[in-house]
Here is the input.
Amino acid sequence: MNKPILPLIACSFLLFATTACNANNYPVKEVSSGIFYHQGVHEDPLESNMGAIANVGFIIGEQCVAVIDSGGSYLEGEYLRKAVKKQTDLPICYVINTHAHPDHIFGNAAFKQDNPDFIGHEKLPAAMVARKDFFAKTFKEILGKAFPGTEFIPPNITVSIDSPLTIDLGNRLLTLTAYSTSHTDHDLTVLDNNTNTLWTGDLLFMERIPALDGSINGWITTMEKLQQIPFSAVIPGHGEASTDKWQQGLVAQLHYFRLIRDEIRVIINDMGTIEQASKQVGLDEENNWELFQDYHRRNITASFVQLEWE
Amino acid sequence: MFKRISKALLAVVGFGFTSMSLTVNAATPAEPLWPTLKTVYFGDRSIREDATDLLTIEAPKRAEDAAIVPISIKSLVPQSSDKYIKNIHIIVDNNPEPYSANFRLSPELGLVDISTRMRVDQYTFVRAIAEMNDDSLHMVSRFVKASGGCSAPAGKDAAAALARLGKMQIRMRKPTIGEPTQAQVIVSHPNYNGLQFDQKSRLYIAAHYIKNIDVSYNGTALINVDTGISVSEDPSLRFTFTPSEAGKLKAIVTDSKEQKFTHEKQI
Here is the structure.
């Protein structure tokens, strides 16, 4: 009778040990005073990376902590919460979601116990509902053990386009800005007024190929606007946060989208097809981006059907 | 016909899922559905499989964008008045509504070369079944892998699609009379499949989709296609036809609320 139990105990012990080990391997980096982020890996979400592919983090004020994007799984949310607790005993008052993609919202449920306000773009709730069933089904398989506990928690406070919201963490004001359709139709950025540090969400990808789930023209316009603002530091949605590299990142991303837009327009005007564009457009960009093969053709497809309506 | 089929399908597939869940790995629901679907849509009629001598189907191996998967079908035998494909049925096995389109084709088309864009949200077979004028059925199929990452079959900017609802285009290169000409009809429409959510009313938006596209040349029918919620937002229909004389290419689009949108192009 005892025999089958022994391996079980060993297994759960091992599991526990692995988890503890992973928690120590969840480093956060201080970008500006009181602003920490964990840099996601440039991989597709997998059980082995627990979906931790996006940059997520937190800002500590004198009274409160705001978490910005909660992680790509419930498990990552737990790690992020532990990382917050390591830095401060202050309560987590806000969980801000920059948009509805799984790598940015799947950790929300790990913060339920803190009873925070969840904040997002006014179109975030609709975007969550529209994708919920599909994401739940797909990511349950992809994320395996990292998934259980994951919930879609919509914001209880929303931010309207052209009407930024300011929240106070205690002598630390954050300005939350909602954008018209860019990377998605519900992008939100967070600006820390004290340090002039911008959290871009997925409006900026560094190193990793950007993925279009919104409007190519809208995103280009938004990037052009962001380029005009002299932020002291920028935390992109993916890739390294920096004080001095983000401008180059924006230039590279703008270049990519302008290039594919130009080439797709030519194909559309000649009655070309999506398949043709996928085979021809933007191939020179391959060496400039991580995961190019995984998302480039998709960007072409999404852009093509939009540019048909110019 | 579309509605009737859907209801019957719900009953049969519902049963199918329940019984299958006992034996079939959830990750690969693809193959086992077909026998059930075949019975629902075609009864006991026989279908010749791998009819690659008659027609070809092209679809990407992987659905790059789950909301927009281009599907092309070409016939290898020209349409003639005594032997022609009168219908092409498109079945996407694992979509919420597998019966995705029914193209009624005229012998006037000359050559069948049609393409459209579908929503494909999981690993699935996409099938084209040609129904000849002698009522025989011939099938070709392709397996499409689901997209990875954050691509969902949801629309990217429903507000934009709604704002230009009903706007239409007929696109083509400068045609030559007597030569095969490629044309594309696109209509802007959110093609709501009933899974979208309205934030203001906090209710799901009822399915609202294009149900028929009718294309004629000088009053003669070329293609008439029943469509549904498997078709992408802003439905697109590409086809080849040969204008035998100067005239008018006309497209009439009808949606599920019986709104009609019309566009024509003089050739």
The longest strand of chain B covers residues 124-132. Confidence is low (pLDDT under 50) at residues 1-28 of chain B.
